[in-house]
Amino acid sequence: MAERQRPRAKTIWPRMSAPFVQAVLAGHSSLGLAFAALIYLVCFSGTVAVLVHDFERWEAPVVAPVEAAGPDTVIATARSFLSGHPATEHIFISLPDINSPRTRIYAELHDGEILEGFAGTDGTWSGPAPTPWSAFMLGLHIDLHLPHAVGSFVVGMTGVALLSLLISGLLSHPRIFRDAFHIRLGGTKRLQEADLHNRAGIWALPFHIVIALTGALLGLTTLIAGTLALAFFKGDVEQTYALFFPPALEDDTTPAPVPDLEAILADAAARAPGAELRMLRLDHPGETGQSVHVTMGYADKLAFGDSYIYDGNGALFHSERVSESSLGTRILQTIGPYHFGWFAGWVSKLAYILLGAALTWVTSTGVAIWTARRRSKGHPAPVTERLWAATVWSQPFAYALSALTALVWPGPDPLLVWAIATGLSLGLTVPLGPVALSTGLRAASALLLTALPLAHVLRHGADYADPVAWVINAGLLASAALIALSLAWRATPQRRARMA
């Protein structure tokens, strides 16, 4: 009697059996639940951070845009600032570019005080013009306002987790490419959101992968440097960083005149034909150990540009050209613009906002699908549903409240206001269910986003020197309208029946 053959496992993709797909799906769900809150926070904050330069302009709309600033204007800016602040430790002067048409000054004084502001068309320092909410928002995305080494590591690992979720999501849905345009609208909430979740994930997959990969690289820079130090320099991290950063001059605090900036900028321009001045940095100005760092950028390159460092006598001390720099240096200089969308002006910014919002939505619906699946199987997770509703809708509420507070009452730290608003939202999970919690936070967010442009006009007047303030105000009102529409759509009888 012939031996009976064991039936082979049913395959969905070649060499991918159904048990394998189910195991990957289980791993996808577990990893998503473990990192869900962090991934959502990083995605949400990153989407808003795309507009950090524009929010800086919105916070200081009295400063008029500057289309271009030549060497003479930059020198006037440096002299204008140093004349009023001779005890300056470091001063950075960034010139107008495609991301921000302003001459920006960032300075650290000897006593540790930080001064930020902008220069006018003639290069005159117009006084401090802090942008605390923009700084808070960018810092939350970069390192969660934790100690930088710790926070950037957490954000980097979140990027690794997101990349892993993208890969496991593809493997656990073998028909995802075949069904790329198949959406079951009008059915149950779980099936509808599952289809939308998968379609949004696949349509913008290249963007999702780039964001996750560059975010992981940016966040894990410290870990990568430590690994290289152990592998090649016997654990000496300073030798690793020396591969990417220029050497420093010997510290000497003896008073000395500031070197001839006109001659230095002319020399840098001669050494980098076809480039334009991007940044002027003075370290320890007025001391013998001072240095002048000039960055010359190229319009057709994402990298910062050629770097020239001059000593206190105006002699060239160190130079590094983009074309001659190491591969690691070029990667470090370009992944930032790629990650944030700062390379093609409003075209890339708008694309990154839409795609970032899609990635944030994919993250938020992932947990919602998991809880809906459990409920449909008779194993609801009410605590998770409440916590997730609070997590998702706490961020529009907390961001709007912190921005409004910074606008009308600059005293409190925006980070503190954000933390209190987020904690309050999570605390409401005790008395409220997920639907009531979501509805309340959406309504509060819409109201705050509507109030922001009104408060901005009342504080600064309608005659803005920088017209981008109107663009940001219009975007805030549009965001409020979208949230209000989501409330109205959710409240229809058909939707309430499907969500029950």
List keywords for this structure.
500 residues, alpha+beta, eight-stranded antiparallel sheet, 10 strands, globular
Describe the structure.
The protein has 500 residues and is α+β, with helices and mostly antiparallel strands. The chain is built from 17 helices and ten strands. Strands 6-5-4-3-7-8-9-10 form an eight-stranded antiparallel β-sheet. A two-stranded antiparallel sheet has the order 1-2. A hairpin with an 8-residue loop joins strand 8 and strand 9.
How are the SSEs placed, and which strands pair?
Elements lengths: L10 E3 L2 E2 H32 L2 H8 L11 H14 L3 E7 L8 E7 L4 E6 L5 E4 L3 H12 L4 H24 L17 H15 L1 H15 L1 H12 L4 H6 L18 H11 L4 E8 L7 E7 L8 E5 L5 E5 L6 H14 L5 H31 L5 H27 L5 H14 L6 H27 L7 H23 L2 H7 L1
Antiparallel strand pairs: 1-2, 3-4, 3-7, 4-5, 5-6, 7-8, 8-9, 9-10
